[in-house]
Design goal:
Elements: E1 17-24, H1 31-39, H2 43-49, E2 60-64, E3 73-81, H3 87-91
Parallel strand pairs: 1-3
Antiparallel strand pairs: 2-3
């Protein structure tokens, strides 16, 4: 597997997968997630409304773009509750290990 970080318009990248995020209890999508949702004809909001996507921390949902995007798949990652988001929660560190750096893959 090859992973690349690329700056640019996420909606135009021809790749196997792009990654966007959502928050738990989010009222509406914004940023790149909203753009991708629009290009997928509201698929992300439909899955949220149906309870398939909750936005919980570390939740991962893979959506096939079915030719609606140059990217084959959209990986939607849950970031938990927006007000609780921190580097510690994203790295999975318990409060007593806050000085420990994030390890690869987290």
């Amino acid at each position: 597997m090859e992973i690349k970080v690329i700056a640019g318009d996420i909606a135009t990248l021809k790749t196997d997968a792009i990654i966007v995020n959502t928050f738990e209890e989010e009222e509406h999508l914004d940023g790149n997630t909203a753009v991708i949702n629009e290009l997928l004809a509201g698929t992300i909001t439909q899955l949220i409304d149906q309870g398939e996507i909750k936005g919980k921390l570390n939740e991962v949902t893979i959506i096939h773009s079915l030719g609606k995007l140059p990217a084959t798949h959209v990986v939607l990652t849950g970031l938990g509750k927006k007000k609780e988001l921190s580097l510690d929660t994203r790295c999975g560190r318990p409060p007593e290990n806050r000085q420990m750096p994030c390890s690869p893959g987290r």
